[in-house]
Design brief:
By secondary structure, this protein is α/β, with parallel strands linked by helices. The chain contains 17 helices and 18 strands. Strand 14, helix 12 and strand 15 form a beta-alpha-beta unit. The longest helix is centred in the first third of the chain and has 21 residues. The protein binds adenosine-5'-diphosphate (ADP) and 6-O-phosphono-alpha-D-glucopyranose. InterPro entries: Glyco_trans_20 (IPR001830).
Length: 494
Amino acid sequence: MSGDNSFVVVANRLPVDLTTEPDGTSTWAPSPGGLVAALSPVLERHQGCWVGWPGVADETFEPFRTDAGVLLHPVRLTAADFEGFYEGFSNATLWPLYHDLIVPPIYDREWWSAYREVNLRFADEVAAVAAEGATVWVQDYQLQLLPGILRQLRPDLKIGFFLHIPFPGPELFRQLPWREEVVRGLLGADLIGFHNESNAANFLDLARQVSGPSGSHIGQPDELRVEGAAATREIGAHITTSDGRRVGVGAFPISIDVDSIGPADPAAVAELRAELGEPKTVMLGVDRLDYTKGILQRLLAFEELLESGALDPEEVVLVQVATPSRERIEQYRVARSQVEEAVGRINGHFGTIGNPVVHYQHRSMPKSQLGAYYAMADIMLVTSFKDGMNLVAKEYVATHPDGSGALVLSEFAGASVELEQAHLCNPFDLESVKRAILNAVWDLDDAPEATRERMLAMHEQVTTHDVDLWASSFLDCLAQADSTGDSDGEPEPR
Ligand code: ADP
Ligand code: G6P
């Protein structure tokens, strides 16, 4: 692909956020989350531009290039957009709905209006920026109306959509009062991608069930299942829309840029372990502070194992790195206070002066530093109630090329489909989490060779299925997809 504006990525966030330091100065820092972690290296390798929000409300910025040469087109959001579109509809309606109602979604008509408004604004920006016949790759749940609006504004564009979070079963999705509009928005794309086959199957099934006001179906799938497209590079299934377009649907498991996370500097790793007091076993959690991540559950499991004597506080520490996230939303405040209360209680009970058993860090850190944390950890704990992929699991595996370490992984994380050699657990069942942690500890001691084989198998999976494979398989399929077929390309009324 050549020329910045013939390949356009559009996501709610730009890859950098304007961050204000304590001394009042502002700097551009990497934005949080797996979407940016995965797409940044892809955009750096392709010549492309990125349309998104720069992380601060009510400010206008001119387009600029990152140090890595990616052209950024900032979209302005007002404080009211931030509340209604971002905190409201995106993160208090869609996020909990798509994560299987871990907390109840709020259905608010004003938030829905804000969501439509902001999707229209993004569409106007992309329509103004994209070159004739450009490929536009729309990202994630914040922008699900964009493919439909863009198709009307710019029928010359090739439009892909990728969902970075789970897609729920139709019986849950159908709660959404604006379900028909959302499905129609997505069906504006030529190709819709999900992380795994079960998410794609949920969407295919849903498309069959949702009808327009006249009772007619808005889409008919030709299959209800798809095969993973990363290996075949063929679109798994299609949905024929009521206006006769054939929209591709596929499963494309996202991954990581293995080079950007390692190898860790052995001196930095040794220094970290020394700072922790040279414990026998270091456990690690790395998450945005989100209620979907099961951080409290892993702390409770750790606490019960200390209480029962199964783990010895003189031998083990848990390091929990938690990136601040969506901090004004009530459920996130609750999650943070529950986590911090548990950390305090566990340290109060089992720590000694200068020797906490839980080392809690509520901040973001550079990837190189995070890489050293992963490399020094004997056991990584990923205990999400539900997660699209959980790239942190893959990042941990990537930093252990020698097969050291062990991974405890939720069976509800997308990564569990590929990392099946992990110690899988059910985070809704504390006994299951405790069992997986103990198995990991015992295996490291008693079955080192088998543990090494498990880690090496996962390392092979991650390194041979990296983010380049994800992006190239999606973009190859998008190049084949042509939902308009023989249509004359006339825009439909908006
Ligand atoms: P999500 O996208 O929901 O945040 P993932 O596990 O898929 O979850 O991706 C999280 C990404 O954020 C990973 O690339 C990880 O390295 C990064 N990350 C998580 N915590 C931190 C942190 N404290 N500092 C820097 N990066 C972080
Ligand atoms: C997840 C979502 C992304 C989002 C990221 C960080 O990875 O899939 O779309 O950008 O979390 O969340 P935030 O609300 O800070 O953008």
